[in-house]
TrEMBL record:
This is Methionine synthase, vitamin-B12 independent. Its EC number is 2.1.1.14. InterPro entries: Met_Synth_C/arc, UROD/MetE-like_sf. The keyword Methyltransferase applies. Pfam families: Meth_synt_2 (PF01717). Keywords: Methyltransferase, Transferase. PANTHER family: METHIONINE SYNTHASE (PTHR43844), SYNTHASE, VITAMIN-B12 INDEPENDENT, PUTATIVE (AFU_ORTHOLOGUE AFUA_3G12060)-RELATED (PTHR43844:SF2). It comes from the Bacteria. The lineage of its organism: Bacteria, Bacillati, Bacillota, Tissierellia, Tissierellales. Gene3D superfamilies: 3.20.20.210. GO terms for biological process: methionine biosynthetic process; methylation. GO terms for molecular function: 5-methyltetrahydropteroyltriglutamate-homocysteine S-methyltransferase activity; zinc ion binding. Residues 2-350 form the Cobalamin-independent methionine synthase MetE C-terminal/archaeal domain.
Length: 378
């Protein structure tokens, strides 16, 4: 969710030692409380924290793990082999090279006991409803941290780095489940980069921008990382969710990826997720049938159907959401369908794609559609 000017200013002041850590934490608490109250007022079933303290959806891990340093895209340019292509990509994708940060492996990874555990404790202190905690997925983390000219001093390959990511995630999952969490979601937006860019990732979401990789090889690697982490989740305690979208950094839809989930079906079937939270509000995501006609997916896991485009200011039509859900229900049982936004409303703290007045209206449309469906089916 959008952090707001006060939180953004407080982050800068904290780094400059102009405010105390306790004052900053109080501001994060207050803003998180607002976000939780908003969700409760809207009668959302599963509450999230809003990720208020995170710099962005993945770079915040540089503040949580040893052996990781936050670099701007401009700083990374010094270590990228194909500098011209790197610059061209950032320009094409409307990315400010100095403001977007990435967490880069600059040493052996060290788990310090918290990635999102403290965020979960804060969330649980603010609500009695079921809660979901979101984490950048292990493939996203491994890919985004691997900058060969730096990281290879500490790991022989990104595959070796990935094994340490798996070990750290297993420890964090154990902590999360001891605290108590209803849904653990792993965000893997980079999966669409593999299959819709012909093996040549072109996004700032990965440090290895100019690397050419075979999509089959990369999907196998991603499957290994995600499955290894998900297998460590005790399903008696938590639902294990995978989120996939096609980019959420710009309101310019023309620069975001397009393609159905078909190339990812094998991965979806192999990782043993309980829930797939997928972007579906835009035609760029393809047809529902491409996903739900697959017998390995159909009624084998819950579909978190994306019905809100977070980048559009206008609220979605309740009837349109209702009809989209009804379409999904021609393939799956009612207990296998959840409704959710396609993605977050502020992937980057300094670059939100929407604001609270619009967000409230959009979520209300989704809740109204949910209520209509429940009245019909329950």
């Amino acid at each position: 969710m959008p952090r707001g000017d006060e939180i953004m200013k407080a982050r800068r002041m904290l780094k400059a030692n102009m405010i105390s850590l306790s004052d900053y934490e109080q501001m994060v608490y207050d803003k998180t409380k607002e976000v939780v109250q908003l969700q409760e007022d809207l009668d959302i079933d599963v509450i999230t924290s809003g990720e208020i303290e995170r710099d962005n959806y993945v770079s915040f891990i540089s503040e949580k793990l040893g052996g990781v340093t936050q670099m701007s895209m401009a700083e990374m340019l010094d270590y990228v082999d194909d500098k011209r292509e790197f610059e061209n990509i950032l320009t094409t994708l409307d990315v400010p090279a100095t403001s977007i940060k990435n967490a880069i492996c600059t040493g052996k990874l060290e788990y310090k006991g918290d990635i999102v555990s403290e965020e979960l404790k804060l969330l649980k202190s603010l609500t009695d409803k079921p809660v979901k905690i979101t984490m950048p997925g292990p493939y996203l983390v491994t890919r985004s941290m691997w900058l060969a000219n730096v990281s290879s001093k500490y790991y022989d390959s990104k595959e070796d780095l990935g094994e340490d990511v798996i070990d750290i995630y297993k420890k964090e999952i154990k902590n999360l489940q001891e605290i108590g969490v209803d849904v653990i979601q792993f965000d893997e937006p980079v999966l669409t980069e593999i299959v819709f860019t012909e093996g040549r990732p072109r996004t700032f979401m990965c440090a290895s921008l100019s690397t050419r990789k075979d999509p089959t090889e990369e999907l196998k690697f991603a499957t290994h990382l995600i499955k290894s982490v998900m297998d460590s989740v005790d399903r008696d305690k938590s639902i294990c969710s995978l989120h996939v979208c096609r980019g959420n950094w710009s309101k310019n839809e023309s620069i975001l990826l397009t393609g159905p989930y078909t190339p990812l079906l094998d991965l979806f079937a192999d990782i043993h997720a309980d829930l797939l939270a997928l972007e579906f509000s835009t035609p760029r995501a393809g047809e529902l049938k491409a996903l739900l006609a697959d017998e390995r997916i159909n009624n084998k896991m819950i579909l978190g159907l994306g019905v809100l485009n977070p980048r559009l200011d206008d609220k979605e039509d309740t009837e349109g959401i209702y009809k989209r859900a009804k379409e999904a229900l021609t393939f799956i049982d009612k207990d296998k369908l959840w409704l959710n936004p396609d993605c977050g409303f502020a992937t980057f703290s300094n670059r939100p794609v929407n604001e609270y007045d619009h967000i409230r209206e959009k979520i209300q449309s989704m809740i109204d559609a949910r209520n209509k469906l429940r009245k019909e089916y329950e």
